[in-house]
């Protein structure tokens, strides 16, 4: 049973060890500051500049057609703030209505002091198969769109960029008739000069990472929006020889139900960034970020419900925690919020009718934390609508808006990450209430 027309909170999950801190929750609703909506940076990548992470990707709020290339910033990879649109919808041309602009990736050119963005440019039927290029003088500012072309005259669909240690940079490009290409970029990074390698195997969503002199190329098989067992290949030279493609997640998991988009080094850690596309409602696609272990020439991906990443030490799974239920008798339900049957929820129950004209609220009392710290609380919920719902969540008197994308997992609740300060002890109060009068919409 998926609850329609209102938000139903199933409970909370608080992971609260002594190392309690902010956590990455793959596959959940990630509310951005500045928009109070689920982050729209699909098919994206992350660039770190002076200890700030910039996440650049596709806005899919209104479906598959181009709306904008968005940029968000964060200092911890968990709390994201919308900064702006790097490229915005134009009245016509490559960035006009009904166009495809996918997988924007950005690298910095030291010689020109410009940020250079490459992206897949296409018609709505994917008949053009081109790359587009734009440049900007600041990572998260406006970009100047230069135009589009087929690199070296070959089709290009999914693409990525790779900048090597010596400053040479490469376009990774899926050429449907021929295979997957590595093409060398010109010195200013705005064009390609020559082909470096061509795999005849058909691999898309390419992303490259280099560790200890080994190049790792990641990508997926071609199954449209559906997931598959993504692959990797390694080499000690970009021109090969490259090893044969192998799985980096357990076979049959479809890469934990995700498609590669980017690989990011974070201190001693390597983070896999994947998309879990929801083709029927692309804005509700989620981000599957997981720890990737690269050792010698092998790669393996670990699945975690939630985890803690650090620039200073190895990542850890989230510590043990508590899972207070929404329907617990120690909570206070008011203004019409009621306990409901919820077949997929723990205990078979949830609390619904939160928000609405009567401002139904659910108050969790006595939430315990063993440290005074900012941490991530997962709000487990069901939203059977096709659009986001929102709640005002107040923790120890401080309020924020939380977004809830549609929960599309049958009877299993989704999770929305709530990043908050908790006090040590058992007196924290979390109130989930309405937002602007709707049923939490
Ligand atoms: C913090 O709380 C968790 C979960 O209740 C518990 O497992 C852990 O031992 C606690 N840590 C400390 C340092 O008290
Ligand atoms: C959303 O997309 C549809 C179809 O592509 C278009 O007609 C509509 O104007 C778009 N709405 C907004 C707000 O961009
Ligand atoms: C890019 O390189 C190709 C091949 O060298 C060349 O034909 C084309 O004019 C170049 N494009 C631009 C915009 O300089």
Automatic annotation (TrEMBL):
Record's signal peptide: 1-20
Key words, A-Z: Glycosidase, Hydrolase, Signal
Entry similarity comment: Belongs to the glycosyl hydrolase 43 family.
InterPro entries: Galactose-bd-like_sf (IPR008979), Glyco_hydro_43 (IPR006710), Glyco_hydro_beta-prop_sf (IPR023296)
Presence of keyword Hydrolase: yes
Top-level taxon: Eukaryota
UniProt-recorded name of the protein: CBM6 domain-containing protein
UniProt region (Disordered), positions on chain: 313-333
Organism taxonomic ancestry: Eukaryota, Fungi, Dikarya, Ascomycota, Pezizomycotina
GO annotation (BP), single: carbohydrate metabolic process
GO MF annotation list: hydrolase activity, hydrolyzing O-glycosyl compounds
């Amino acid at each position: 049973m998926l609850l329609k027309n209102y938000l139903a909170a199933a409970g909370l999950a608080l992971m609260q060890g002594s190392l309690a801190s902010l956590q990455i929750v793959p596959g959940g609703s990630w509310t951005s500051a500045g928009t109070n909506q689920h982050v729209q940076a699909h098919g994206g990548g992350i660039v770190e500049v002076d200890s700030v992470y910039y996440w650049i990707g596709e806005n899919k709020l209104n479906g598959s057609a181009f709306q904008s290339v968005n940029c968000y910033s964060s200092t911890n990879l968990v709390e994201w703030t919308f900064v702006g649109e790097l490229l915005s919808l134009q009245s016509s041309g490559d960035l006009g209505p009904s166009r495809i602009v996918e997988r924007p990736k950005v690298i910095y050119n030291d010689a020109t002091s410009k940020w250079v963005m490459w992206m897949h440019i296409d018609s709505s039927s994917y008949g053009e198969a081109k790359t587009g290029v734009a440049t900007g003088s600041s990572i998260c500012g406006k970009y100047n769109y230069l135009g589009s072309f087929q690199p070296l005259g070959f089709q290009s669909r999914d693409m990525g960029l790779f900048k090597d240690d010596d400053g040479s940079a490469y376009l990774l490009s899926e050429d449907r008739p021929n295979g997957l290409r590595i093409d060398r970029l010109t010195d200013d990074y705005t064009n390609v000069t020559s082909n470096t390698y061509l795999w005849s195997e058909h691999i898309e969503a390419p992303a490259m990472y280099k560790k200890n002199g080994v190049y790792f190329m990641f990508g997926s098989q071609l199954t449209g929006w559906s997931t598959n067992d993504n692959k990797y290949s390694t080499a000690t030279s970009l021109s090969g020889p490259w090893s044969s493609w192998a799985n980096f997640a357990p076979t049959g998991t479809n890469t934990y139900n995700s498609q590669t988009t980017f690989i990011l080094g974070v201190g001693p850690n390597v983070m896999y960034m994947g998309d879990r596309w929801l083709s029927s409602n692309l804005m509700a696609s989620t981000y599957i970020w997981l720890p990737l272990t690269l050792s010698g020439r092998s790669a393996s991906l670990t699945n975690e419900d939630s985890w803690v990443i650090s620039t200073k030490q190895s990542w850890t799974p989230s510590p043990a925690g508590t899972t207070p239920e929404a329907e617990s008798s120690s909570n206070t339900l008011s203004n019409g919020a009621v306990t409901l049957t919820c077949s997929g929820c723990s205990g078979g129950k949830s609390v619904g009718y939160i928000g609405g004209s009567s401002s139904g609220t659910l108050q969790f009392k006595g939430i315990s934390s063993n440290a005074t710290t900012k941490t991530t609380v997962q709000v487990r919920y069901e939203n059977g609508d096709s659009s986001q719902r929102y709640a005002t969540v107040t923790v120890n008197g401080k309020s924020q808006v939380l977004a809830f994308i549609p929960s599309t997992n049958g009877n299993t609740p989704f999770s929305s990450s709530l990043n908050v300060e908790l006090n040590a002890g058992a007196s924290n109060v979390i109130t989930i209430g309405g937002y602007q009068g709707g049923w939490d919409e």
